[in-house]
Design a protein that fits this description.
This protein has about 120 residues and is α+β, with helices and mostly antiparallel strands. The chain is about 25% helix and about 15% strand. The protein has a domain at about 75-119. It has helices at about 90-105, 105-119; strands spanning about 60-65, 75-80, 85. It starts with about 60 loop residues before the first strand and ends with a helix. The mean pLDDT is about 75.
Length: about 120
Amino acid sequence: MTGRPRPSLKSLPATPTGARSAEPTPTPDGRGALKVVAEGVPLVVRPDRQVRDGRYVVAVLHICAPSARAVPTAHSKCECGHDRSAVGRSNVLALIQVHEDHRAVCPLGRVANARRKAA
């Protein structure tokens, strides 16, 4: 039982002694060129270039009526919490009126209308 040592199960290649391709190429002064970040990546986060005027969406009415034979659907949503939906032509038409009425009495809509009139 004290004979030869067990052979290794995996053969490893010889360790390279020369330059390896994964290393950066040396610069003319002999030092390696180190890359800090990938090319095309901005180093500083730039400020948003879009100029905003303080307006934002308050109320949204989304109507989906794909064809004349399909059943239309609608969804009315407001930032104040008003959230209604309707299915069917008559219900969608009623929701459109409810949405318009809500925009007239919504406190968020009044602020937006006052800003619009002042400008």
